[in-house]
Structures are given as C-alpha cells and as structure tokens.
Amino acid sequence: MPDITFIHPDGREEGFEAPEGVSLMQAATSYGIDGIVAECGGSAICATCHVYIDDAWTARLPAPDANELDMLDATAAERRAGSRLSCQIRLDASLQGLVVHLPDRQY
C-alpha cells in the first residue's frame, strides 16, 4: 500500500496510505481530499481530477495516452509539465511516497 502525499495550493499537506490497484482519483476521493472533484467518476472525460505530479515523480509514471493529453487541454487551472488526470494513474507499490500537488481550481 503506497503512502501518498497531497499538497494543497495553500501549502497544507495531507497524506494517507492508499490501496494498490485503484486510481489516484479513487484513493483521493475515498480519503476525502478536497480539490479533486472527479465529476465523471474516472472516465477521463471531464478533467476535474487534474493534479500536478511532483517533478521527482513524473518520469516514474507511465506516459499519458492520447485521450488524457486531449483532456488536459481542457483543465480549468494552468496546465503544467506534471499535469495529469488522477483517474488515469493506477496505484501500486512502485508509487510508495508519491507526492501530488493540487491545482487551485477544477472549474
């Protein structure tokens, strides 16, 4: 079970142990992380689970597919190099210690 840390726009940190096999979005919403709306429930069609993967982790994740890249063009907050849809990241032991920054808005 990987430990995940979310950093809010105000610098506040929230961390928890997430189950393997679920998406980062599912783990975050189950834990009650505010800042991830997940309006479409993980279908990669709304971009309201947009997050910024910490620079130390971006190369350790699988590359986003074409659909995710298209949806990242529709994010409400600024798109950055580490922008990802949290619904498209599956958690496993290799993500132990993952650090995720939350954007200032999803709408």
Structural class: alpha+beta
CATH architecture: Roll
* Helical run tally: 2
Q: Could you describe the largest sheet, including whether it forms a barrel? A: 5 strands, mixed
**What is the CA–CA distance across the termini?**
31 Å
Number of domains: 1
User: How big a fraction of the residues is strand?
Assistant: 15-25%
Superfamily at the CATH H level? Answer: Beta-grasp domain
Task: Assign the CATH class.
Answer: Alpha Beta
Mean pLDDT: 97
Q: Which stretches are low in confidence, meaning pLDDT under 50 for 5 or more residues running?
A: none
Radius of gyration: 12 Å
- Give, in order, the helices and strands: EEHEHEE
Portion of residues within helices: 10-25%
Can you offer a commentary on this structure?
The protein is built from two helices and five strands, in the order ββαβαββ. The protein has a single domain, classed as Beta-grasp domain (Ubiquitin-like (UB roll)), CATH 3.10.20. The protein is 14% helix and 20% strand. It is globular, with a radius of gyration of 12 Å. The chain has helices spanning 24-31, 66-72, and strands at residues 3-7, 13-17, 50-53, 83-85, 98-101. With 107 residues, the protein is an alpha+beta fold. It has a five-stranded mixed sheet with strand order 2-1-5-3-4. The termini are far apart. The model has no long low-confidence stretch (mean pLDDT 97).
